[in-house]
């Protein structure tokens, strides 16, 4: 689909568009700018991406993954979280369906920015979980905002979405911004020994709809078994 270069609201500028071949097939990549410049406190980029497959304008129940940037896993292969695999699974599913969109939001570290996330990782290495680490730094548990995602969905003319997420707050935030969510589909990734504590904290402390067994125990048990 062609997205004309335009300014649709004072904040949302569509900068560029091109087809990009990926290991999951061709996607149309559209870059949106939300705001003027990187945030001076967090360093977060204003340039968000819509990765589009198929014709989505005017369509109902379009599969959408609203994904937050995670440099550590997506670029460097960090095993501490499930972000990279969630992104890949979303692209794979959308490619299989022949229709859908990944909205890639530059909200590194749940919106606190890369340096703060790495500070939080430092605290996690000393035994704090992901929520307590943020709090010890005087930062919110989750600083993300979804205005840009809602504006991108509106600009792409998507009538309603099937959202790939386990996060109830994301559903609520998008709904409040006027996004019509007809259904939710889970995005469950098997934990590894390093991601298990994070997934467990997401389930216990942030209410994510993740499997309720003690992920930490089971994954660590497997890892210990592997090491023996
Ligand atoms: N502050 C902080 N951010 C993290 C940490 N681990 C991953 N992240 C960030 O968390 C964001 C992803 O959020 P999650 O809460 O894992 O998942 P979600 O997107 O809310 O939920 P789903 O839609 O179900 O995937 C990305 O921006 C990651 O960079 C961490 O330990 N601390
Ligand atoms: Zn991550």
UniProtKB/TrEMBL annotation:
<feature type="binding site">
    <location>
        <position position="165"/>
    </location>
    <ligand>
        <name>GTP</name>
    </ligand>
</feature>
<feature type="binding site">
    <location>
        <position position="81"/>
    </location>
    <ligand>
        <name>Zn(2+)</name>
    </ligand>
</feature>
<dbReference type="GO" id="GO:0009231">
    <property type="term" value="P:riboflavin biosynthetic process"/>
</dbReference>
<feature type="active site" description="Proton acceptor">
    <location>
        <position position="142"/>
    </location>
</feature>
<comment type="pathway">
    <text>Cofactor biosynthesis; riboflavin biosynthesis; 5-amino-6-(D-ribitylamino)uracil from GTP: step 1/4.</text>
</comment>
<feature type="active site" description="Nucleophile">
    <location>
        <position position="144"/>
    </location>
</feature>
<keyword id="KW-0378">Hydrolase</keyword>
<feature type="domain" description="GTP cyclohydrolase II">
    <location>
        <begin position="17"/>
        <end position="186"/>
    </location>
</feature>
<dbReference type="GO" id="GO:0003935">
    <property type="term" value="F:GTP cyclohydrolase II activity"/>
</dbReference>
<feature type="binding site">
    <location>
        <position position="130"/>
    </location>
    <ligand>
        <name>GTP</name>
    </ligand>
</feature>
<keyword id="KW-0862">Zinc</keyword>
<keyword id="KW-0342">GTP-binding</keyword>
<dbReference type="Pfam" id="PF00925">
    <property type="entry name" value="GTP_cyclohydro2"/>
</dbReference>
<feature type="binding site">
    <location>
        <position position="86"/>
    </location>
    <ligand>
        <name>GTP</name>
    </ligand>
</feature>
<dbReference type="InterPro" id="IPR032677">
    <property type="entry name" value="GTP_cyclohydro_II"/>
</dbReference>
<keyword id="KW-0547">Nucleotide-binding</keyword>
<feature type="binding site">
    <location>
        <begin position="108"/>
        <end position="110"/>
    </location>
    <ligand>
        <name>GTP</name>
    </ligand>
</feature>
<dbReference type="InterPro" id="IPR000926">
    <property type="entry name" value="RibA"/>
</dbReference>
<protein>
    <recommendedName>
        <fullName>GTP cyclohydrolase-2</fullName>
        <ecNumber>3.5.4.25</ecNumber>
    </recommendedName>
</protein>
<feature type="binding site">
    <location>
        <position position="170"/>
    </location>
    <ligand>
        <name>GTP</name>
    </ligand>
</feature>
<comment type="similarity">
    <text>Belongs to the GTP cyclohydrolase II family.</text>
</comment>
<dbReference type="GO" id="GO:0008686">
    <property type="term" value="F:3,4-dihydroxy-2-butanone-4-phosphate synthase activity"/>
</dbReference>
<feature type="binding site">
    <location>
        <position position="70"/>
    </location>
    <ligand>
        <name>Zn(2+)</name>
    </ligand>
</feature>
<feature type="binding site">
    <location>
        <begin position="65"/>
        <end position="69"/>
    </location>
    <ligand>
        <name>GTP</name>
    </ligand>
</feature>
<comment type="similarity">
    <text>In the N-terminal section; belongs to the DHBP synthase family.</text>
</comment>
<keyword id="KW-0479">Metal-binding</keyword>
<feature type="binding site">
    <location>
        <position position="83"/>
    </location>
    <ligand>
        <name>Zn(2+)</name>
    </ligand>
</feature>
<dbReference type="GO" id="GO:0005829">
    <property type="term" value="C:cytosol"/>
</dbReference>
<keyword id="KW-0686">Riboflavin biosynthesis</keyword>
<dbReference type="GO" id="GO:0008270">
    <property type="term" value="F:zinc ion binding"/>
</dbReference>
<dbReference type="GO" id="GO:0005525">
    <property type="term" value="F:GTP binding"/>
</dbReference>
<dbReference type="InterPro" id="IPR036144">
    <property type="entry name" value="RibA-like_sf"/>
</dbReference>
<comment type="function">
    <text>Catalyzes the conversion of GTP to 2,5-diamino-6-ribosylamino-4(3H)-pyrimidinone 5'-phosphate (DARP), formate and pyrophosphate.</text>
</comment>
